[in-house]
Amino acid sequence: MKLTPALIDLLGEDISLTPPSWPHFAVHNPSTGDVLAYVREMTAADTEAAIAVAEKAMPAWAALTAKARAKVMEAWYAVIMKHQEALGLLVSLEQGRAIKEARGEVAYAAGFIEWFAEEGKRAYGRTIPATADGKQLLTISQPVGVVGAITPWNFPLSMITRKLGPALAAGCAAVVKPSEDTPICAIALKRLAKDAGVPDGLIAIITTTHSADIGAVLTSDARIKKFSFTGSTPVGKKLYAQCATTVKKISLELGGNAPVVVFDDADLDLAVAGAAASKFRNSGQTCVCANRIFVQRGIYDAFVERFVAEAAKLKSGPGYEESTGLGPLINQKAIDKVVRLVEDAVSKGARIALGGQVDAQGPLYYPATVLTGVTRDMQMFEEEIFGPVAALYPFDTEEEGIALANDTPFGLAAYAFTQDITRGLRVVKAIEAGMVGLNDGVMSTEVAPFGGVKESGIGREGATEGLEEFLETKFISIAGLG
Fold first, then answer.
1. Is the C or the N end of the chain the one with fewer CB within 10 Å?
2. Tens of pLDDT along 238-259?
3. Residue of 94, 119, 253, 455 marked catalytic
4. Long-range contacts of range 439-444, CB-CB < 8 Å, 24 or more positions apart?
5. pTM of the model
6. Is position 253 annotated as part of the catalytic site?
7. Which CATH number does the domain housing residue 343 bear?
8. Both 81 and 51 in a single domain?
9. Total domain count for the chain?
10. Are 161 and 236 in the same domain?
């Protein structure tokens, strides 16, 4: 399936359906392997020019009242939702996501624009009791400056709006480099922002396959005051070090290795449904996907039986088909990693209860797969699978379950299932993660802070905390007031 006339009209001259005369690269549909479109191959010089334009555009935007900025952002939200069906199809075509989920991705992305439009009105300062007669002490919140951002392919709309929403609400401009796998979604967002009245130059989209070159500019250019990255931990560490040269404000949402701990007093139906929802959303390609599923031995066999039955309901197929439950993985590198991790586990004694091999319908399709008898010495205990493979581990005691959950350098998301509220509260406090779902397998929302601890990142996105990431606090001391 190819881009529809409506999408072609929306994207305009920013894409070409045939190889153009200007520098370009091809964007492929992972469901079919076909070229969707060609987009501009931009350079470090283009990025520097975009920063200059953003720097000039920002003062007028920052000078508006928060209410005036909110009106523009609300118009952007409305136009995104007006095009929900077209954008959902674009997500499915470009990223491979099942169309039913892709429509939800559009609403999720738009939600960040809507929520931060309102939250920007609440960027409060405070009054501090004076320490001497005749003084007034107060703070105000001001936009941090031009923002540089790098976003991933697995949520090609919402990972951009989760950064742009608070940045624009705070009064900032932004230069964004989306993944080379999904640049068309980013182009569409910018086009809709323009239609909604977002000023020219306030948002720049840098499409490129030369990620390191663009990352070097965004992290080293002193005009960029805040840098935000969502992606792998190794890349995040490198970018973090590069930002040190200009001491930027920084937020990093990095890799995860999410544990699910299912205790023997859990509601089994709820636990199976929650673990499956976490594991197989977006074909297992999310940073908060269940990566290690620990099940207490008393219910292990019953859980396996029901979980396999639940996973077996998911039909693999092209993302744009309504019946698809699991779309393709993003590229061959992703498939190769899944195959390597499954082969390693099986070679060390894991058993395949479902799936376990590349689907015959195409090289990027991998079916819902369940492995039992997985152990600590297998590579998938240490590495994010980032595919539709559920690794099930038995455990005996509460203490063992918590220790296994924490036995990782990562700490993004975690999940626990128990009907004992006392145990539940004890466990969520003990698990080392920035977010914990208790009897909940899908917890992401624009109104709550998203982020991790340990090597899973720095800072938070979404919620009030997400707005604060794009603000600086200025302290003002006034003397001579009599």
1. C
2. 999 999 999 999 999 999 999 9
3. 253
4. 439/266, 439/267, 439/270, 439/271, 439/274, 440/274, 440/415, 441/260, 441/273, 441/274, 441/275, 441/276, 441/277, 441/278, 441/290, 441/415, 442/274, 442/277, 442/278, 442/281, 443/288, 443/413, 444/108, 444/288
5. 0.96
6. yes
7. 3.40.309.10
8. yes
9. 2
10. yes
